[in-house]
Known about the structure:
The complex is a heterodimer. Chain A has 7 helices and 10 strands. The two termini of chain A are about 25 Å apart. Chain A is globular, with a radius of gyration of 17 Å. The longest helix of chain A is centred in the C-terminal third of the chain and has 18 residues, at about 175-195. By secondary structure, chain A is an alpha/beta fold. Chain A has a single domain (about 5-225), classed as P-loop containing nucleotide triphosphate hydrolases (Rossmann fold). In chain A, the strands form 2 sheets. A 6-stranded mixed sheet of chain A has the order 6-7-8-3-9-10, with helices on both faces. Chain A has a 4-stranded antiparallel sheet with strand order 2-1-4-5, covered by helices on one side. Chain B is α+β, with helices and mostly antiparallel strands. In chain B, α8 (about 240-290) packs parallel to α22, α15 runs antiparallel to α22 (about 680-715) and α15 packs across α25. Chain B is elongated. Residues about 175-180 of chain B have low confidence and may be disordered. Adenosine-5'-diphosphate sits at the interface of chains A and B.
Amino acid sequence: MDNITALQTHNLTHTVTSKTGDLTILKGIDLEIKEGESVAIVGSSGSGKSTLLGLLAGLDRNTSGDITLYNHSLTSLSEEKRALLRGEYVGFIFQSFHLLPSLEAIENVMLPAELKGDKQARQKAERLLEQVGLSHRLTHYPRQLSGGEQQRVAIARAFASEPKILFADEPTGNLDEENGKTIINLLFDLNRSQGTTLIMVTHDNKLASMCDRQLIMSAGQLKEGSL
Amino acid sequence: MNFALRFIFREMRSSEVITLIVALIISVGTVTSISLFVDRLQLSFEQESANLLAADRLVRSDEPILTAWRQQATDLGLEQASRASFATMIFANNKLQLSQISAVSDTYPLKGSFLVDTQIFAKGFASSQSPQQGQIWLSSRLASLLNVNIGQEVEVGDKKLTVSKYLVLDPGSSTSAFAISPRAVMNVADVAATNVIIPGSRVRYSLMLAGNRDKLNQYETWIQPQLKDGQRWQTPKQKGQRIGQTIDKAESFLLLAGTLAVVLSGVAMALASSRFVKRHLMQVAVLKTLGATPRVLAKLFLLQLLFLFVIGALGGIVGGWLIQEGISSLLSSLMTTTLPEPSVSKLWLGIATGFISLIAFCLPLIIRLIQISPLSVLQPAARVEKNALAIYVVGFIGLYGLMCLYTQGFMLPSIMTLAIGGVGLVVSILGWVMFKLGRLATSGATSGWQIGLASLYRRLTPNLFQLLVFTLIIMLGLILVGIKTSLVSDWQAQLPKDAPNHYLFNVQANQVEGINDISQQLGLTSSSWFPMVRGRITKVNNDRIEKLYPEGKSEPELFEREMNLTWADQVGEGNKVVAGDFHANGISLEQERAKEAGITIGDKLTLNIGGISYTLPVTSIRTVDWGSMRPNFYVIVPKQLLSHYPANFVSSFFIKAGQEQAFYKAMSGYPTVSILNVGDLVKQIQTIIGQLSQAIQLVLLCILAAGALVLIASIGSTLEERREEGALLRVLGARASLVRQALIVEFGFLGLFSGIIAAIGAEASLYGVQTFVFKTEASWHPLLWALGPIIGVLLITSIGVFASRTVLKVPPMLLLRDF
Ligand SMILES: Nc1ncnc2c1ncn2[C@@H]1O[C@H](COP(=O)(O)OP(=O)(O)O)[C@@H](O)[C@H]1O
Ligand SMILES: [Mg+2]
């Protein structure tokens, strides 16, 4: 099991065009992540962490180099195919939660399973919300929930599709220490129990040190590091 | 996909979706009610005109109707009747009288009915039965000329016929106002026995048809190519052309006005969908990270659009139906006949409107929504801003297409588009200057004035857009008010309440005085007396008509037959000289006839009057207002030409309801005088004018509703910002009343500017519309200059403050959380 490569990049480069000219955000990144690993990406703000995370998750197409996700080369896939892959392999947690405001907590969690046409969506969602300690808030709307609660719903949603890789972009960035801790514990618990690969961007050194590996992003390049 | 449905129901509560639906309902409803209402008018008009024609359609021929024509009508399952009209002598009591006879089949008339009576010179009652074999109906005038009563016999050629009724009106020939011979109706089966029709007799044969519209059209396509000279296909529309034109004019006006409601609803839809898209961008990106493929998302949103379309179209159709039903039933109390039910097939225009609007205004935005990059969840800068131009282009094409659909042409839509574009440009420039001036005039933020005026400039783009929208709405409203007033007064001027409803003709000079006495005793209003002398044009520039139009080449109406000539010292009411000098010593011709005959000023015409020829140049061309119901003439000649001929006189009278009997009785002392009652026709036109003014009011209401919706939707697009700002002001220590004051100032000025620019624009547009579209004389509209600014300030301030009322209620605390 340790030998399976979940994610691999080769000379990953990303350039965006903006009004002020071309900007190369990622400059030739080589990376290999094994199944089941937990990886933290740290680095100063604006160094390209979110961009890297998004490309690894197949949210956009990189400009050059390769990304391979479970033997699928993301670079050559259309958005349609990448979306299917995301639904199949990937879960996501955001700094600002991004729950759909018009859906109840349970419906937010049901979404990924429903997109796959899973008939068990509701039962699964109920179980997950119970696991994150929100079984009494199923029918509440996001605006009726605090930030920590919203992030817990988001975690439940991320695990609802039974992802092989979970991406988290500063999951505790908008939360106080107390709530941050709850979230981290939930994240690692679920990660362990489901055998998920975890790739997380964070500013929090303590959180980073809980991961198997730490990677440091600086000026578009990635170094293996330790804290 | 029940997920999609649930998604939709959740969305149904959001204000954008409600705006979208309401906008759809308004545009579908407006177009539906207009097209249904106009359809009912048209159907009712066609039915009434069919009564005038005595059939739905008619083929007229100078030769007997071919058996093949009848066979084809039978094959198509159409009802048929036939009529042969000819002039012949009727003999009775040693008296001989030239008469105009209609010989009709038992099935005649297919539409409408005869008016007959058993009393001479009476009002008559309806009869849908034609005379039986062996019988004849004589007009009261003919009966009194021949000195016969009901039950006595008259001779038509070799055949004796019994007078069984007095004819008051023959439905198929009621409009030939200036026939000289008195009329009679007999059964066509008796014609052969009379032996009056011999080869060379002038007989007009008609095959009359009635039935299903499609079948009639089928028949028309079949017969048209077979028609030769002297044969003609007639429809009710041709028969009642004047009313037809009024309705056509009104229909394009109504639909044009309706277009404005559709445009406004379209703008509201575009605003609502852009807000919808903005709010959903992040959601869609999130859905994409969760593995939603573009196809799934496309399905989701298309399904939503479809759902909206169904609700909007259904709501619009129901609403539109109810509105036109309401108006029609309101009207039915004023009308003699009820309007026929509208045809369901007319619903398509409303449905097409909804569909095209949705495609044009929502689809491009939704496509843009689906195309958002999922990376924007992490990186807002990655949002792909698709070319906004494409969205405007699609919206514009959709609107333009709709306008073309309504007006069935490109001219009016193009003018409107150019006008709106021009207004847009002018408004942007003027608005920018005014906002800038407002900003310069104030500084600081201590009063509502300063804040309000400053924010006009600060939110320049949305405010310019709102200024444009408000200006357009007010302008359109003003234009409608202007057009309505001039349109309705134009119609009413044409046909006042006391428009003549009776013509008197064949009046001898020595009878004029006596009839004037009757008119005075009964207190009737009448036009002046016009002298009439029969004459015929025989040569044009010394070429004989027979040479110019040899056998088989159909001649223009002017040369076709003998006609009534008159003289006049003055250009008559409703006549307008468009070329030449009316008072010159020559002939004055009516414009349409002159054009048809290819005659211009300077051409020499030879007239044969009573066997003597006169050659005169054409010295003036007139237009004639045929809607006026006054006697009108194609040809007016100098007085000295006619003065030594015995003239007939003609005049028109207005006879109040209830006075007819007294008048007819008094007139029985003048049996040679022909009386033609056109009261029904006049009443019909007046009813239609009443209906049309109602319809215009309806359209004004629809436009106002759509306009309010645009206001609310466009304020909605800046609402978040306004709320944040209001909260911020209050965090900084401003009282709620200051924030309210600022809002009032901002919207008040927006309204004032809109109103002023709108008044200018409306005046200019009215000039154009009056001059080029309705071809009436342009006039100033001082009312608009007052209405524009007042309505602008009141309407926009109240709706604006209402729509942004939540700004005042935002607790400052909210700012500390999120927006
Ligand atoms: N699509 C884009 N257009 C322009 N600039 C971008 C785009 N995507 C990222 N950037 C820029 O690239 C840099 C890296 O962004 P990001 O990956 O969000 O950094 P981090 O998450 O490490 O703070 C930032 O300066 C950001 O503004
Ligand atoms: Mg980041």
